[in-house]
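hey can u check if this looks right to u? its 491 residues, i copy pasted from the old doc so theres a chance i mangled smth
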Amino acid sequence: MTNTTGPTSSFSDGSVAGSSADPAFPDLDGAARLPGDDGFDAACTGYQRAAVHRPGCVVSARSAEDVRTAVAYAADHDLHASAQVSGHGLTTALDGGVLVDLRGLTRVDVDPARRTARVEGGATWQHVLDVVTPHGLAPLSGSSPHVGAVPYTLGGGMGLLGRRYGYAADHVRAWEVVTADGTLRRVTSASEGELERELFWALRGGGAGSGIVTAMEIDLVTVAEVYGGSLYVDVAEAGDVLERWRRWTASVPDEVTSGVAMLVLPDVPGVPEDLRGRHVAQLQVCVAPAGDVPHDDQHSVDGVHSDDGVRSVERLREAVPVLRDTLCMRPFSDSGAIFDEPDRPYAYRSRTAMLRSLEPGALARFPAAVGPAAPVMCVAGLRHLGGAFARSPRVAGAVGYREAEYLVSVLSPVAPTSEATGDEVAALHADVLAPFAPEVLGANLSFTFGPSTPDEVCSAFTPPAADRLRHLRDRVDPGGTFLANHPLPAQ
């Protein structure tokens, strides 16, 4: 077994491990920070700038015991508690209470023989890739390597290898989680206690409302290289590009995972010259190699050849007028370049819908709704699901609507903390998604950024799963210590 460890000797602001700004936390491996202390604001501010935590105290954890101490303190004093890694999906921010900063928990241990890794709660996917790549292994990570691995997985995890291997949450073997009573629990599908088994189910796709996860043990897959990148198409030249992509997805093998981003690019320096000033469809593709399956055979995977996947991409390339082509063989460690998403923090809102199918009529109206004439800037997205996403894992989890064939999302930048801008964006997003309504199964909370109605939150799960999650929440957190990002309403 090999490992990597995050910084252990000091914080970037100079406060040494074990120091504490608050006598309520005398024995921390990390540090407690109060408003005005060095590092307080940095811990509160994440990638998503439309919401910012304003806690009464930040506990910068360096161990699971630090997390347990912080949670126990919050519960004992009737305070809310929440945790943050990168803050990509932050929607519900603390106002007072205790924020547990997990960025000091970045250790990753890999067992190459078992093809597993133990990932601490503050590690990003980049931390994981750095450790597992030398062994020819890959996690079921997403399109952005700077996203926190644990929060991503708690929401299900719809990754670049997903049509081949399924949701990341399906491949979690164990969680280490601190519950509201201040207990650190290791939970698996075979845990002795019924409560622990229920926690294991809930955390596999049900979000983080039941506790703060300090580590997870996950399966890895034998993937060293993928064929991936993007084809950029001018919508003015191919107004039916989305329909061409939809028809193409109907015949691709399971090793091909793809999506589309609709982008209105400004005519300014910094944007590639061949894309400047254009309304572009970015067709994003990742082709996994064939032949590998998780070693405990959680999914039944058809034995298709990787050449079939590459040949299918050639059919897509021939079907659209390509402005820019970045498709190539690349190490999976370079997977962030496939979707090529921005990595600079900003404020944004989004809405999503999981779809049974994509109707051509609704799809035909989509480019104009999010194009240059839209009253608010939009980045709209489609993802092809099916394949292993649709197959139930050997051990059940809370992921909903596996029958969905596509995910549609629409995202817009907003002025930080501006309710007026947020209301305008929410109205536009509702209008953009309205044509898809007949095929909507529910929302996907991992890609929903911004306030949601109780009905929208409930829609992310099947009714039995939502009831089960609520019942578990009432058992493990009866006092409402944890501030959920998208809280399920009471029954």
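Residues 419-433 form the longest helix (15 residues).
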